[in-house]
Design a protein that fits this description.
The structure is a single chain. By secondary structure, the chain is mainly alpha-helical. Helix content is about 65%, strand content about 5%. It has three helices and two strands. A two-stranded antiparallel ribbon has the order 1-2. Helix 1 runs parallel beside helix 3.
């Protein structure tokens, strides 16, 4: 295991822990009656976002280009995303770790948006 893989694994873990922490912070800024709703939106957002990233998100984001704008469905359900091979754009870390790291940041966007609209 390279030091870059270890560092990226720690970064992925910290961003994963940041998701519920953001929900808790946002629930502290709303009325008491809405706090459980904000936390639930955060948890459900992580669950749905993770599933969507696994099914199509990674493939559309990092798959082979279709006209230079969007990827195709070659990596749908993480097909050909190896735990031992490195990914094309990250040549020193395993492809599954790269995909997981990118997923964590894709999950943070909807969590931040739901918190912005909380009353």
């Amino acid at each position: 295991v390279s030091t870059q893989s270890t560092g990226l694994l720690f970064a992925t873990t910290f961003v994963m822990l940041q998701s519920p922490a953001t929900g808790l912070a946002q629930s502290g800024m709303v009325r008491q009656k809405n706090s459980l709703s904000v936390i639930a939106q955060s948890i459900v957002g992580v669950a749905i976002g993770s599933a969507l990233w696994f099914v199509v998100g990674f493939s559309l984001t990092f798959g082979p280009s279709q006209g230079g704008f969007i990827g195709n469905f070659d990596n749908i359900f993480w097909q050909d995303v190896s735990n031992t091979r490195c990914y094309v754009t990250a040549t020193t870390i395993p492809a599954t770790l790269f995909a997981s790291f990118q997923m964590m940041f894709a999950l943070m966007v909807p969590i931040l948006i739901t918190g912005a609209y909380a009353k």
